[in-house]
Write a structure and sequence with these properties.
The radius of gyration is 24 Å and the shape is elongated. By secondary structure, the protein is mainly beta. The two termini are about 45 Å apart. Strand 4 (about 105-110) and strand 5 form a beta hairpin. The protein has two domains: about 5-185, Alpha-Beta Complex (Outer Surface Protein A, domain 3); about 185-253. The chain has a 16-stranded antiparallel beta sheet with strand order 1-2-3-4-5-6-7-8-9-10-11-12-13-14-15-16, covered by helices on one side. About 15% of the residues lie in helices and about 45% in strands.
Length: about 250
């Protein structure tokens, strides 16, 4: 199936998804009128499935979230499509843009000359819910070297390796003050071997050891002080807890 067909099907799925809310709300209104209740409606936002990097701010986890791949955004040139569905939804597929709208919600994507996503925005009424921009290191790059997302007054900047692995995540408030930062280090096999997480002046670090691409241990630090050492053997975890660089507790999980 070509990329253009995939995009066209995506538009159809989106419109069907939005129509589900339209019919659901209509049924609710009719039932409320019949029962004499006061009509109260609440608009729900159909959010786009966005593969964003999520890193647990309370835990250091071996998490690898990749951006949308280039192949998912390549389109055939000189192919254009527009249409409206029966619920007054609108969709438009051009050679370098994609637009989908339904009611008071609309989503727009723009692509660079190599067919890679460079800009996206999601609106409800006149309110911008999310904005994303992507930068690429070269014309041959599949993954963006940097992706910036603005949503809920938070600016999230993500840097990726050429293989699409999350290298660095920084979050800023609306005044561009750094809130938290996560930095990842990988070995030559692409395994996450170190992660640094900084927030409110506290620096947490996790270091993983591998044997034939299999994790055999994890060591945790807080502000440079060793807090835990975890051994992994045949599905079991032996946890060693430390305080002032001395072992104070051992348990098996």
């Amino acid at each position: 199936m070509s990329i253009t067909h995939k995009r066209f099907l995506y538009c159809i799925y989106f419109c069907v998804f939005c129509s589900f809310f339209v019919f659901t709300e209509s049924d609710k209104k009719r039932n409320r009128l019949l029962s004499g209740e006061t009509e109260v409606t609440q608009t729900t936002v159909a959010e786009r499935d966005n593969k964003k990097t999520v890193i647990d701010s309370g835990q250091n986890e071996n998490t690898d979230n990749r951006p949308d791949e280039k192949k998912d955004h390549l389109i055939e040139k000189d192919t254009q499509s527009e249409g409206k569905n029966k619920n007054n939804g609108f969709s438009s597929i051009q050679d370098n843009t994609l637009m989908i709208a339904d009611g008071n919600r609309w989503y727009y994507e723009a692509f660079d000359t190599n067919g890679r996503i460079s800009f996206a925005v999601l609106y409800e009424n006149d309110i911008e819910l999310e904005r994303k921009t992507c930068k690429y290191a070269s014309d041959n790059a599949v993954y963006p070297v940097e992706q910036i997302t603005v949503a809920n007054n938070i600016i999230e900047k993500i840097n990726y390796t050429p293989q699409g692995k999350t290298l660095r995540v920084e979050k800023y408030d609306q005044d561009e003050k750094l809130i938290e930062k996560t930095e990842n280090t990988y070995n030559t096999d692409g395994n996450l071997i170190k992660q640094m997480y900084t927030k409110d002046g506290t620096v947490k670090k996790s270091v993983w050891s591998f044997a034939h691409d299999k994790v055999i241990s994890e060591t945790k630090y807080c502000n440079g002080e060793k807090t835990a050492f975890i051994e992994m053997h045949n599905g079991k975890r032996i946890v060693h807890l430390y305080k002032n660089d001395r072992e104070v507790f051992v348990t098996e999980e």
